[in-house]
Amino acid sequence: MCDRISLPEMTDLWQKTMNWQPNEQQQQQFQQLYELILVGNNQFNLTRITEPTEFWEKHLWDSLRGILPLLENKQDTAVKAIDIGTGAGFPGIPIAISLPATTVTLLDSTRKKITFLDTVIEQLNISNVQTLTFRAEILSKQPEHRQTYDLATIRAVGSAAICAEYTLPLLKSGGLAVLYRGNWTEEEKISLQSTVEKLDGEVASIDSFTTPLSQSVRHCINLKKL
Ligand SMILES: C[S@@+](CC[C@H](N)C(=O)[O-])C[C@H]1O[C@@H](n2cnc3c(N)ncnc32)[C@H](O)[C@@H]1O
């Protein structure tokens, strides 16, 4: 393990921006996740975001801001979620830590990332996470996965239309896909709209906000499966 670098707790900022804050155990798990990723980075080149405050904002805060309604209202609901193209586990692992009643499948097409995530899950000792090495477009055709999830998250994987194609087939009727985006343009909106309609979905809402420290622009595109 590397020399311990502490993540900032940011209790006031969690509270102010999300009306939520991690409990002691969750804070420890965030810290442990950070340390495991710093170590894993040497071998797997997982993320450029390693400075503690930036890690807090771009990996922890950003991951949870996308599922804010669940954090506020669905703490005890058994939600079946999948994080597509999870990479080093974002947003899936922070979601699993923060919503223990939610089961999260971490999906990535790169085996080495999933192998790394398996060790992370074991060391974090979290039981509500499982991993899968697959391409999303293949998984979505499999009967045991197609139309079986309540929530699908996807961050930094491709265009918004591609993200719709990867997420919507996996959702049950009434399920929600959260597309984590930075900037959001009119062209993206038009191309997304036609894809979503073909996939029996609708654009339920677009949540526009800035991150609390660097004021970076973010959009969460919430798609509903009809
Ligand atoms: C830029 S990384 C984003 C990782 C993480 N979601 C984040 O925001 O930090 C994109 C990830 O998506 C995975 N990926 C790309 N295309 C995929 C596909 N069709 N199915 C599953 N995973 C895919 C890649 O292997 C990579 O780990």
From TrEMBL:
GO (cellular component) term, any one: cytosol
Alphabetical UniProt keywords: Cytoplasm, Methyltransferase, rRNA processing, S-adenosyl-L-methionine, Transferase
**Residues the entry annotates as binding S-adenosyl-L-methionine:** 85, 90, 108-110, 136-137, 155
Q: What is its EC number?
A: 2.1.1.-
The family database entries (SUPFAM superfamilies) matched by this protein are listed as: S-adenosyl-L-methionine-dependent methyltransferases
Q: Where in the cell is it found?
A: Cytoplasm
Name the Gene3D superfamilies for this protein. Vaccinia Virus protein VP39
One of the record's GO molecular function terms: rRNA (guanine-N7-)-methyltransferase activity
Q: What sort of enzyme, by top EC class, is this?
A: transferase
* HAMAP family xref list: 16SrRNA_methyltr_G
Task: Tell me its family.
Answer: Belongs to the methyltransferase superfamily. RNA methyltransferase RsmG family.
- Main function: Specifically methylates the N7 position of a guanine in 16S rRNA.
* UniProt cross-references to NCBIfam families, sorted A to Z: rsmG_gidB
Return the protein name: Ribosomal RNA small subunit methyltransferase G
Q: Which organism is it from?
A: Aliterella atlantica CENA595
| Upper lineage | Bacteria, Bacillati, Cyanobacteriota, Cyanophyceae, Chroococcidiopsidales
